[in-house]
Amino acid sequence: MKLFHILRADGTRWFGRRKMWAAIIGIAAADYLMLGQDASAISVSSVLDMVYLYIGDPFFILCLMLSATVMGTSYCDERETGCFFLLMNRCSRKKYIISKIIHTFFSALFVLTAGTFLWICSMRLFMPWANPQEDSFRSIASNGMGELLLRQNYPLYFFLHSLGYGMTAGIVSAATFLISMILKDKMLVQVLPVLLYYINTIFFPSYSERCYTYSLSNIFYFIDNSISSTKLLLARGIGICIFLLFIFGSISYWILGRNFYGTLPRRKRLPLLLSFLFY
Q1: pTM
Q2: What is the Cβ-side half-sphere exposure of residue 231, based on CA atoms within 13 angstroms?
Q3: 41 pLDDT band (50/70/90 cuts)?
Q4: Residue 117: which of 21, 46, 27 has the closest Cα?
Q5: Cα–Cα distance between 232 and 222 in angstroms, integer?
Q6: Rounded Cα gap, residues 107 and 99, in angstroms
Q7: Looking at residue 33, what DSSP letter applies?
Q8: Are 240 and 219 within 8 A, CB to CB?
Q9: SS3 call for 278
Q10: Residues 108 and 24 sit within 8 Å (Cβ to Cβ)
Q11: Which ranges in 142-224 belong to alpha helices (H)?
């Protein structure tokens, strides 16, 4: 089976499906729960104030978990249903890993970006984008992507902020896929990557400045960043994503190679599949 066909088959498993829409709506709902913590301040706030206030809020972990469930646990699902044996009979180990890494990343990126941007745009219905006359506006504009704020290009500013969140979700989802090849408990597979993200963004930065430099929050929280250049922020974020996906993919390929089914010669996979189906 060609790589294109494998990519298309995996894409049809999540894009436009009910679980994709459910995840997007769930993320927007979780963001509104987060907003409800300071409901009394909504009438005197702006979209920018609300978004900046809740950067790194614990409710964001729920959004990450919802994003990772779209395709992050696909390996677990395929092993449970037996589809994994069929796939390994029809494609190579390399094509399988490439397709899964691509779709685990982009499914979570799309879902969290769309859910976050939907929440932000919906807030515009009852509050302004920003209040440029306030001191808080100038303070936020001095951080990452401030040039877009000063030009009042609010839709692009908030879309890129949502995209940074989406990149974070993509990395967590790809890590979920990798961990699913190591652990058998599906609950642990879903919880452990989010726990590692929490440790990376909350505990590591408190130890040293170097740890903070390599934290996901410092890399992908574009609007709360010391780098002001929008292009540099995007280039760094994309570069880190490519690097981590390559690492995750390489480790996944190695782990799958150590599994009994992945190391079987192609001519022996079909008898094994038949024996599994008719066991």
Answers
A1: 0.87
A2: 0
A3: low
A4: 27
A5: 10
A6: 12
A7: H
A8: yes
A9: coil
A10: no
A11: 146-150, 154-180, 186-198, 209-213, 216-220
